[in-house]
Task: structure prediction
Amino acid sequence: MLDYFEVDLLLTDEERLFRDKIRRFVDEECMPIIAPHFDRGTFPMELIPRMADLELFGLHVEGYGCRKESHTIYGLICQELGRCDSGLRAMASVQNSLAMYPIFAFGSDEQRQKWLPGMARGKAIGCFGLSEPEYGSNPSGMATRAEKQGNHYVLNGTKMWITNGSIAHVAVVWAKLDNEIRGFLVESGTPGFRTTQIQRKFSYRTSPTSLLALENCAIPEKNLLPGARGLKAILQCLNHARYGVACGALGSALACYHAAEAFARERKVFEKPIASYQLIQQHLARMVVEITKAQLLTYHLGRLLDQDKAKHTQISMAKLNNVREAMKIARMARDILGARGILADHHVIRHLCDLEAVSTLEGTESIHTLILGQDLTGISAFH
Ligand SMILES: Cc1cc2nc3c(=O)[nH]c(=O)nc-3n(C[C@H](O)[C@H](O)[C@H](O)COP(=O)(O)OP(=O)(O)OC[C@H]3O[C@@H](n4cnc5c(N)ncnc54)[C@H](O)[C@@H]3O)c2cc1C
Result:
């Protein structure tokens, strides 16, 4: 795998071993089946028990049948899964950072006992219901409401674009209770709770993206996450998830580079391999420069997270940079592959299409730019 600046030397033996185990899983078990799933718009559900066997769920959780790992290892896992498919990476990101993490960090012991061991085994899937049809980049405006009625909370509202929503057993739903944002656990099958898978997506095709409708949905009061109050709790989850997205985008960029480089060596045009032409070499060199910068940025961010020193603005920068550069790399790779570049079998077009969604979810490039701008100037330009 491309590692021009030998970032591997900075990893511990344990980190390399874990990464290599996931790399084999991706190459041997995921890559051969992913393109047909992308064509059909289905998630390879058979990979979920395998991901659980490999201890890929519960990476931010201590105890409860989970094996907590460092952020660096989490990032390496997201990179390897993202090298195959962003939907596959999203399965791990959402389960770990957006479902298990909030239950662990903000849940009661009863909630943790109920959900985390099964989620670690891949028997229960979680989702994160934050975005709404009218509130995406500005979640604080959310219209979903919770009202206390006896020993229940009654939820009303619509959540949109929710990864894994239609296959989830439990949804972490964010709603305003007495004007304060709180987190609630809504179990699938609860009366008044309906999920609908969003169809005709041209991006993130393997990932089930859903609408969650809550209509007078009564949940027991014990399903309120006691420790989650306000946007701060949400941002804590998003910090974990955005780092995973940045690492996954790096994985997509690596996949595109390798596909383009291999093709350029083989493909002969005007009787010479296209790799011998300066313009193709320029493309490849540009890709390697950006991948190397992203590897160093991502590696260092993982270490900062592990030391609890990472700022959310640094995570924003990594998400913004890695996704933007991965998109450019995927486009260059697609160009190098010529007509074959549009075939799913060569994988590059899948990454290119998926990166369109990746650039929007977990905060768009504009939103992360504004986060950085505010940090640099002290002035918010959001409103
Ligand atoms: C495949 C997929 C999976 C997703 N999964 C989840 C999930 O699991 N859970 C969840 O809660 N959400 C999820 N989302 C939703 C995602 O987080 C939102 O789509 C994202 O936050 C953007 O919101 P929006 O689509 O409403 O765009 P909008 O907020 O309407 O933005 C539209 C455009 O306006 C720009 N813009 C917004 N505000 C400003 C401003 N102040 N200045 C300049 N430009 C601005 C944006 O950058 C964007 O270009 C997912 C989305 C996708 C596509």
